[in-house]
């Protein structure tokens, strides 16, 4: 796949998973470095999602959730937990993932992730 094709595919996947409103909001930042930074994030992080291979968007979403929880990056965990259904992840799968996070990353990571999931389920979606 050519670089431009992969970047376009990465952008499309990012929009499909996170939603146009989120991606457009990030692109609206007036900071002169913001556009370059967003292009970099799209090319690197979302470029991985655009790779050909055996992992589905669902698989990739579950992996991102596990990794962001393991790293204690709850803001990113929240973003991806909210977006996980668009990648094909069910609520039941997220519930089971919380047990995996607690077992392999420790109780504090599991508890923090569970708090985020509970909050997302009891708070209406923004936008």
From TrEMBL:
Coiled coil regions, renumbered to chain: none
Alphabetical list of Pfam families matching this protein: CMD (PF02627)
Residue intervals of the Carboxymuconolactone decarboxylase-like domain: 36-119
SUPFAM superfamilies given in the database record: AhpD-like (SSF69118)
Entry's transmembrane regions: none
Gene3D superfamilies with a match to the protein in the record: AhpD-like (1.20.1290.10)
UniProt-recorded name of the protein: Carboxymuconolactone decarboxylase family protein
């Amino acid at each position: 796949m050519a670089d431009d094709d992969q970047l376009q595919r990465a952008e499309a996947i990012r929009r499909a998973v996170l939603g146009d409103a989120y991606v457009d909001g990030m692109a609206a930042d007036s900071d002169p470095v913001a556009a370059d930074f967003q292009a970099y994030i799209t090319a690197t992080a979302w470029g991985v999602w655009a790779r050909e291979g055996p992992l589905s968007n669902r698989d990739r979403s579950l992996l991102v959730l596990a990794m962001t929880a393991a790293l204690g990056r709850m803001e990113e965990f929240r973003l991806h937990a909210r977006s996980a259904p668009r990648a094909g992840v069910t609520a039941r799968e997220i519930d089971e993932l919380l047990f995996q996070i607690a077992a392999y990353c420790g109780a504090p990571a599991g508890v923090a992730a569970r708090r985020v999931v509970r909050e997302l389920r009891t708070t209406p979606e923004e936008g």
